[in-house]
What does this fold into?
Amino acid sequence: MTTLLTQALDRIRNLPEDEQDRVARLILDEVEAFAKENGEEEPRQKPISEVIQDITKDVPDEVWETLPKDGAAEIDHYLYGSPKRNS
It folds into this structure.
């Protein structure tokens, strides 16, 4: 770590927390802008909802219709074969 960076971090640590967050946001924005300018942008991680949509997008409606409607409530029955609770 450079001397200048060490000095900056020491000064930031002495600020109130809300000011630390403000300065940290400024630094992160600058680092991200620098990375984009230099082609070093990190790949965006997809939210889990998008991952699920990608996985299930090609499943035909007929397959969805065959799934049990009480799957969440009766998960032990479908996973382990235990008797249904609400039958």
Notes: The helical segments are 3-13, 17-37, 48-56, 61-66, 75-80.
